Structure formats: C-alpha cells, structure tokens
Amino acid sequence: MGEVSDPPVTLRTLADRLGLHVSTVSRVLHAKPGETQRAASSATIRRVRKLADELGYRPNPHASSLRTKRSNLVAVLVPRLSDTVLAAICEGIEEAAGERGLSTIITSTKDVPALRRARAELALGQRVDGIIFGDAVVDGALLAEISARGTPFVLVNRRAAGYPAVTCDDYVGGRMVADHLLGLGHTDVAVVAGRPYASTGIDRAQGFLDAYADAGIELPTHRFTHCAFDERGGHEATARLLDQATRPPSAVFAVTDAAALGAVGALRDRGIRVGTDIAVAGFGDTAIAAELPVPLTTVRSPMHRIGRIGLELLGELLRGGQVASRRLRPELVIRESTTSARPRP
After folding, report:
1. CATH number assigned to the domain covering 170-301+332-339
2. d(Cα 313, Cα 67) in Å, to the nearest integer?
3. What would the CATH number be for the domain defined by 71-166+303-327?
4. Going residue by residue through the chain (345 aa), what tens digit of pLDDT does each one get?
5. pTM for the full model?
6. Run of H or E residues at 47
C-alpha cells in the first residue's frame, strides 16, 4: 500500500491550533499590502504567520476566486514568443504578477490581425481579469471593442492613442541614433523602418527623420523602407535599399536589433564591411548585439521594467483606479559598428 499523505493545511487547521476564529486567520493571511495592521493585533499577526510558515500553509486559489469573483488570471498577447526583447517584457510581467498572486497566460499572435482577435477572444473566454497587449496596432480597432466589453487592459511595448501604455520613449531613441550619426558626419543615411502599423517602428523612424530634418537633411524616398521586424525582414529591406541606389549609404539605422542583424547579412553579401565601409545601428540592445564580430551600436530599452510597470498599472485598474501612460527613457549604447566607419565626402 502507498503512503497516506498528510491532509492539507487549511485556514481551519490554523484557527483551531491558535484558538482563533477562522475569519481572523483569513484576514491576516489574505490582507492586501498596507492593510495587514487592520486585520488583527500585531501579536496575533505574528502568531498566525509563524504557524502558517511552520505548517506550510498555501492559499487555495479556487476558493479565493469564488470569494472575490476573480480568476486571478492575466492574459498577455505578444507578436512573437521567440523575440528576446518581448521575452524580457514577459519576464517583468510574470515577476510582478507573482508578487500579487496573479497567474499569466502568454500567447503569440504573430502580428496577424485575425490571430490577434482570436487570441483575445480566447482570453476573454477564459474569464481573465485583465489583458496586457504587447502587439497593439495604431488604429486601435480591436482595443475599442475590448474596452466596450469592460475588460481592463494595458498596452506594453507599443502604444495606441487613448489607451494606457507603458513603452520606451521610442521617438527619443530614434533621435539619439540620428544625433550620434550626425556627430560622426554621416549625411547619406538609410532607415529600415519596420512595420507601418506599429508605434515602435513609427516613432523610432520619425525621431530619426526629425533629427536629420532639424539638421537640414531630408532623406530621399529611396533611403527609407518598411519591413518585418525580424532578421529576414531587415535583410530583404537592406537589399532593396542597395538595389535602388547607385551607391550604398554611409550609415543604416534599423529600428530593431533583429532587423539590424539582417541588414548586416545583406551588406556582407554585397562585400560591404560593417564598421569599415558603412555604419549600422539598431534598437533594443539584445544580448547578441555586443557579441557580433563587429559589436552593434544600439538603443537600450528598459524592457523588464516596461513589463513590471505594465502589470502594476493593470493591477491598479483591477482595483478600480485610474492610470496614465508611461514612457521610459532609453539609453544609447555606442559600439564599433558605428565608431569605426567613416562617412564619405
């Protein structure tokens, strides 16, 4: 015969051991941060917590859900689970969620509108308490529908007008790259701009273009192209840029590190040496950026913090509060991919 396991430790177990009413024990162990002192006296709080730790008490999430009418589930929608930048955001979300007794359901939408809608509907069918969108598009049509249905949500990574979002200040990041390249004397530059429906690509490219415009330099149309945010997109976009001109630019700005990596591959295919013949800059400061044969100049975005703050804002909405969007300041990380390449006269 197998061993008989010990019965689970319940609120009743603790109450009987301590000679307290079950409701008193429950108030102590389930009080929100800052409310514990109103649950019982300090001595009682210490006794309850000490015994709960000794006996290994764990709250029953199903019972809690029934009491509060909450599922304690948060859905997180991101374009790609394989993206290291998005993975850092998700880690921040999960870390902050765990601290608040929440669980997360993370799913990929591949940036496909029909799949985004299907994943959102699936989340709503799971009766999640709220949603964090990491794949919002600027038109905000789906978000308007979710808002009308009363489910709280927050955006991370990307913004859409009128909805609370936590993002890097992508516009400022784009200007940082432009100011750096202008300082090195690069006037013939190209932009691999990402998707036109995502605020990340829009804001980063616009910040870059505005800085050049302020310097009296307007980029010609053949030096600007949209593409997917990944390596393949960056490779194809850079190849197009090279095909559309008689000579390559002296510098390329790609709005993600992945697209920058693709750009490096396209340049290599043409025998153009990054860091010597041409400067290349990215955005994101992914782990591989510093490990490339020619380390990549890029913009560091506080992705982990973005995830944490996004969950914190959602928590405030779930408590019935009001929140405002946050834009976190980026940091330019300068490496050899731009410092060694000299602009052409």
Report:
1. 3.40.50.2300
2. 23
3. 3.40.50.2300
4. 444 445 677 888 888 889 888 778 877 887 655 554 555 677 888 888 888 888 877 765 545 544 446 789 999 999 998 888 899 999 999 999 999 889 999 999 999 999 999 999 999 988 899 999 999 999 989 999 999 989 999 999 999 988 999 999 999 999 999 999 999 999 999 999 999 999 999 999 999 999 999 999 999 999 999 999 999 999 999 999 999 988 999 999 999 999 999 999 999 999 999 999 999 999 999 999 999 999 999 999 999 999 999 999 999 999 999 999 999 999 999 999 999 887 866
5. 0.80
6. helix 42-55
Q: Residue 60 and residue 101: Cα distance in Å, rounded?
A: 11
Both tokens of 61, joined, read 């999430």
Which tokens hold the place of 230? 């990944």
Structure tokens at 8: 């689970």
**Secondary structure class of 96 (helix, strand, coil):** helix
CATH 3.40.50.2300 domain locations along the chain = 71-166+303-327, 170-301+332-339
